[in-house]
What does this fold into?
Amino acid sequence: MNQGNPSRDGTPGGRWLLGLLLVVAVAYPLLVSSNYAVDVGMFILFTAFLGQSWNIAGGFAGQMSFGHTMFFGMGAYCSAILVVTYGINPWVAWALAIGVGACLGAAVGFLSFRFGLRGSYFALITLAFAEMFRVLADSAAITRGGLGILVPVRQGFDQLQFVDGRTFYYIALGLCLAGLGIAGWLKRSRFGARLEAIRENEDAARALGIHVLKEKIKCLALSGAIGAAGGSFYVQKYLYIDPHLAFSVARSVEMLLVTMIGGAGTVFGPLVGATVLGLLGELTRSLSDAQGLSLVIYGVVLIFIIAFLPNGLISLLQRRSRKAGGRNA
Amino acid sequence: MDFLLNAVVNGLMSGAIYVLVAIGLTLIYGVLHIINFAHGALLMLGMYVVFFLVTRWGLDPYLSLPLVAGAGFAVGYLLYRGVIGRFSHGKDENILLITLGLSIIFENAALFFFSAHTNIIDLDYTDDIFILGEIFIPYTKAVSFAAALVICLVLSLYISRSDLGKAIRAVAKERHGARLVGINVETVYALSYGLGIACLGAAACLLMPSYYVSPTVGHSFVLIAFTIVVLGGMGSFVGALVGGLIIGVAESVSGAFLGEQLGQIAIPIIFILVLLVKPTGLFRGAQ
Amino acid sequence: MESKKARSPQRREFIARSTAVALGTMAFPGLLRAQSAKEVRVGIIHPMTGLVAYSGQHCRLGSMLAIEQINNNGGIKSLGGAKITPVLGDSQGRVEVGVAEVERMNEAGVAAYVGCYNSPVVIAATQAAAKYETPFVVDVGSSDLIVSRGLTNVFRFSPGFGQCVDTGVAALETINKDAGNPASTVVIVHESGEMGTGTSKLLMNQLPDIGLKVLDVIAHDNPARSFDNVALRLRSLKPDLVMHTGYANEYQLLARTLKRFKVPTTQFSIMGAGFGIKFLRESPDAAAYQMDVNHWYRPDDPRAQALKNEVEARKHDFVYEVFCSYNAILLLADALERAGSADKGALTESLAQSTWSDHFMPYAPTRFVNGQNEGGRAAGLQILNNQIEMIYPEQFASAKPVFPNPEFR
It folds into this structure.
């Protein structure tokens, strides 16, 4: 059951590949002279990190959610409110936002799973939660409603704002690596094994003595913490948040998409998906200026990938490593 | 008191429109067990068709309903056969993503071909309104209300009486068993999807006189449609009808009392409550 | 059994090579297109796709028309006839994409930016451009947050909504007084986003000063599915005026709904994004007698007429997005002309000192303070006899206002 974790299948080639990728990723901003390219790279890493949030719930535990943006948005607003309204240091705010994200995840998990929601029902309730938060953010005074919150420009390390895009790149890289680390830990740990058991067959898992409700809640709490961490980062980078940016369906879809396309339930799935979609997006945008046409191509490619690589792009690597490994067929 | 009464009546009228959008979704959801992400985009395409029929050929939207519904059926059937059924390899998540991909394609193709501005149709009866005491009912909304009732009834009867209806119910209830008794499940799926999109075609005809069309118009209705489907019960037409009306009234009344903005919260909250308390919905599905 | 080792290095090489190629093309785009000495590159960022694509497309049209005009008339003469080369970008209405476009265009060596319609994108994009000290001319983007951050590279020629509200309130006061003060109550309807909320807050403060009582403030979602309830509420409140700030779809929907429900009120909007030729064309009945305070051109000016004809010949609408962008480019060209250089510092300075007056807007003399053109003015408009007439200020007016709405007198 080695899904997309090349370093695990025993081939030294896999470890070398990982090492090379890491070196490339670290050296990237130093190698390229284009700030634009660094920005694109940063956004890909960031998206991969957000995707990992979805991956934990949807990929590992099989709880597909359509409202994952609520964690992103909650983290973003927490940070923004704490920094702007209460003058709290952005780093501290980031940590607090992560905590809030975890609590939100646990709460949503408790509500949904306690009442036995599964499959499509769970997906829809998460959608509803996200929408509920959007309306609340739109109407509440604390979030400044539709006006959104603008974080004042105050550059400096202690303010978590940097002139140099490269610094944000490295932070995003750090987040992405943390995400990979968490996913990798899940792959090896008993907690992760329990989640996968729940994904494969919930009733059987329960029969095996797994406390399904507790595990699912823990899983969602972890997922929420990651999503919120991403939201916090976003606010510090773009210095603005509003209900639409925070809680739109588009972002939920994006988090889902990069993981499903890359390979759900794998360590590298979200990264692969984010890279492919990110580069594809850049490519189609630069090729064609016709409005809408580039996004049409995007949609076509999406269907193509689903049609011919239903286990995600990572399955390409799996096939190769199987052929090479021989014993993993 | 008048105000509340009007809010309720308004809610019933808008609810009827939501019902029209939800009917197709509940059928697809009930039979194929998939969330049709392309629902909003297909509604949008249907509305463009109606728009062109009205502006280019002067066809009245109500009169062209059978035509547009028929076209919807064909499109839905072909989409399922050619794309959804073929590429999903039977996995539900794949269907989800494929319909998502379709919605991206349709929306942006519409943007490319029709450009971004909104289009409205102005007919002789667009501004007609019935005034009963202090109750206001726009003519176009009254028509869609009546049509929603009729369509629900007809569809319900068809599903419960006809052979295809029986096959659909069989597949919805127990797919493998249905296959064992010789029902071609893939064909039933394609026909059901086609039927669902035919409903969207009808919805488009009834919606255009009171609303507008632009490439992103589907978004406004999709979330609500999902809520109704779950509230009413997957695959139940009566459920979609009752659910839609309840949602319409809830939205209207909460908008009246909480303000138009915060009032929007009624829908997700109802949704959440239903899911927690009675996830199978109010009515049992196509069984 | 094939040797594992034989396979891996090949795979590694393949991946390494393709990565390098991909990176190379992205990293050094400048190599692909070297800028010639006889051109000035200007980055133009608008939402060409997404919810407000209509506006974005019209903005871009305005920019392109201005660029064509300048280039056809000999380019920037003080730079030896250098032509303006547009570098076009689609922000998709999204902050991340807008910022990425700023970065991409910076690689392409743009001397300045024009954009971006949506205020959140403008805010983020101008900040990104500030890193490179590249001047950024905001064509449309009415939030006053844009010019209040102390960024020296930001310039907005058109008025922000603070200024538009001031004009609107002054116009309303004058119009009301001239008609004998028939109006004393108002309900404000606004979209729940930044533009609507900001405008409504300002109105709530200022309307009481001109003798108007605000009975209620109704915020609505974007998009809004139905205004039937709002119409009913207005019927029960019976305000003399309904002031709506919203985007195009909702604006039209509200106007049509009010008409359908026969709500006896006068509609006077400030920054009604739906007010315009398209609305008039599609719903003449609902549009009749509507008043709006918005960006508009001087109706008597032949240059405006010529541009209008050109735009309509291309089968587009002459909406404010077009001429606001058009002006932004001309402002920039004038600054280039005076600076005699495309150097960022010189250009920024030249813009800051600009007194450009060769335009057809009903503005006071151009003067930039903290990036905002203090001379920018909105105008009062009304739909009369199936035409959009300017009714305020009097000096540029093409018709007298009809107030209140005669259908409900």
In short: DSSP finds 14 helices and 14 strands in chain C.
